[in-house]
């Protein structure tokens, strides 16, 4: 899936405003059934959605004025719609411009972290910046949507573990391992492996969506904390390069990682049923403890019909209820699996910081030796 674009306009729902064509067989059955939809709202009230990827910070940079607490029609995500959709946690992508590399990538990521903080500070009644699983619970108890900064692109590190530590201190909690000399088609270099160890020591989660198979497999083998795929569906159902083949889904399940299925027509298909098919498949191959949701709203993507914005999660949950998903499985999908992964990262980091000092090795020392 293409990353965020420089000029993001309001994204389209499939079949609406220039999106993909409508389902030729007409409206989807069942998902609007009042009983199932009421049941979905009740379930989400107890187990809100942890959304694994949002492009909102970058989208807001293009608006001269906005109010997320009142409501903002120019984007897919605002506080009223998140409350209607029962969104409890939102991972905010730290987008890089297409021409950013090296120090420019670092500066762009720092600017995005500054944007995240500014947005949250101007919307204190609706949003709260969080760093740990416990702080997410606190935010929920206070009626706030918890914001987790990340994923950020690996290029933001500028091949420096020190920069990684600075980004972590400023709030970064997810890093995507792709598109660098040390995390490329051939997998992780020695420096790349050191990055993964430092991510574990800091409590930052590794994201392998869009990474090469070699990088993903090595990260899964090396990481002491669960690995994320923040925007990956099932390649067996739709051959998109960011989607995961079954062998990698199975490996992710064995490692207790988390595949967060994106709600985009490009990766999952044009209907709610298509998204549900991917969720069914990932659940079957990786297990119910290893599947999550990734709205990818405000990323420039086209979304399936009935999933146009952050308010529409109950329609997806209603379809899964129709398919026989249990309340326990749905509670893991929406909330429990993300909490497990974040708690694991927190626990591993506390233990590792007692055993391991901060490394200072440079890429030239490890990869050129």
UniProtKB/TrEMBL annotation:
<dbReference type="InterPro" id="IPR032466">
    <property type="entry name" value="Metal_Hydrolase"/>
</dbReference>
<dbReference type="InterPro" id="IPR008257">
    <property type="entry name" value="Pept_M19"/>
</dbReference>
<dbReference type="Pfam" id="PF01244">
    <property type="entry name" value="Peptidase_M19"/>
</dbReference>
<protein>
    <submittedName>
        <fullName>Dipeptidase</fullName>
    </submittedName>
</protein>
<feature type="region of interest" description="Disordered">
    <location>
        <begin position="1"/>
        <end position="33"/>
    </location>
</feature>
């Amino acid at each position: 899936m293409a990353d965020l674009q420089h000029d993001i306009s309001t994204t389209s729902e499939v079949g609406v405003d220039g999106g993909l064509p409508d389902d030729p067989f007409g409206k989807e059955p069942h998902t609007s059934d009042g009983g199932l939809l009421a049941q979905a709202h009740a379930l989400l009230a107890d187990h809100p959605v942890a959304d694994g990827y949002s492009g909102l910070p970058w989208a807001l940079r293009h608006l001269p004025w906005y109010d997320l607490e009142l409501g903002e029609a120019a984007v897919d995500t605002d506080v009223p719609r998140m409350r209607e959709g029962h969104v409890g946690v939102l991972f905010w992508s730290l987008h890089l411009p297409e021409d950013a590399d090296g120090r420019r990538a670092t500066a762009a990521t720092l600017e995005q972290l500054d944007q995240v903080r500014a947005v949250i500070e101007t919307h204190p009644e609706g949003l709260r910046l969080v760093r740990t699983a416990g702080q997410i619970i606190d935010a929920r108890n206070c009626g706030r949507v918890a914001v987790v900064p990340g994923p950020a692109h690996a290029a933001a590190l500028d091949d420096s573990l020190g920069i990684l530590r600075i980004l972590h201190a400023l709030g970064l909690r997810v890093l995507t391992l792709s598109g660098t000399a040390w995390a490329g088609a051939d997998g992780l270099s020695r420096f790349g492996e050191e990055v993964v160890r430092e991510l574990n020591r800091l409590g930052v989660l590794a994201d392998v969506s869009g990474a090469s198979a070699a990088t993903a497999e090595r990260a899964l083998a090396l990481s002491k904390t669960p690995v994320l795929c923040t925007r990956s569906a099932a390649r067996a159902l739709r051959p998109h390069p960011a989607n995961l083949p079954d062998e990698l889904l199975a490996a992710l399940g064995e490692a207790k990682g988390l595949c967060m299925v994106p709600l985009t027509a490009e990766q999952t298909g044009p209907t709610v049923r298509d998204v549900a098919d991917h969720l069914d498949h990932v659940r079957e191959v990786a297990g119910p403890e290893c599947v999550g949701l990734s709205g990818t709203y405000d990323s420039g993507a086209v979304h399936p019909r009935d999933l146009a914005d952050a308010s529409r999660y109950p329609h997806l949950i209603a379809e899964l209820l129709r398919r026989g998903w249990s309340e326990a499985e749905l509670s893991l999908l929406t909330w429990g699996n993300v909490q497990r992964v974040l708690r694991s990262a927190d626990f591993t980091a506390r233990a590792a910081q007692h055993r391991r000092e901060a490394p200072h090795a440079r890429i030239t020392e490890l990869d050129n030796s």
